[in-house]
What we know:
Elements: E1 2-11, H1 15-25, E2 29-30, E3 34-36, E4 41-47, E5 52-58, H2 66-71, E6 76-84, H3 87-96, E7 108-109, E8 115-119, E9 128-133
Parallel strand pairs: 1-5, 6-9
Antiparallel strand pairs: 1-6, 2-4, 3-4, 4-5, 7-8, 8-9
Amino acid sequence: MIGRLNHVAIAVKDLAAASALYRDALGAKVSLPMALPAHGVTVVFVELANTKIELLQPLGANSPIANFVAKNPDGAIHHLCYEVEDILAARERLQQNGARVLGDGEPKIGAHGKPVLFLNPKDFAGTLIELEQR
């Protein structure tokens, strides 16, 4: 069902500093920051040959990742994102197998302009999973 790894997301408290590390120290191509108010984050993408790293920073005090960053002030892996061919079919299959979709269960448009869903980390060995339609 799942396709390629789309990105690994790292939550950070200082997006500019984290971007500079990847750009200047590692020589990576880093996108411009993009605010995603519907998701409560600002993101940049670090482009790699085989995938991406998403650096995300809370956008406002009510950000869903604000507590995560407060508990991990030096930054930490937040989630893994896998591509799926059909997000609604993937949701059906997952729910039939007992997996819980976070939020209202309906896909939202993610940073790449495609539908995304998040899966409860308690159902996936403690890892928050994002599914993104190809």
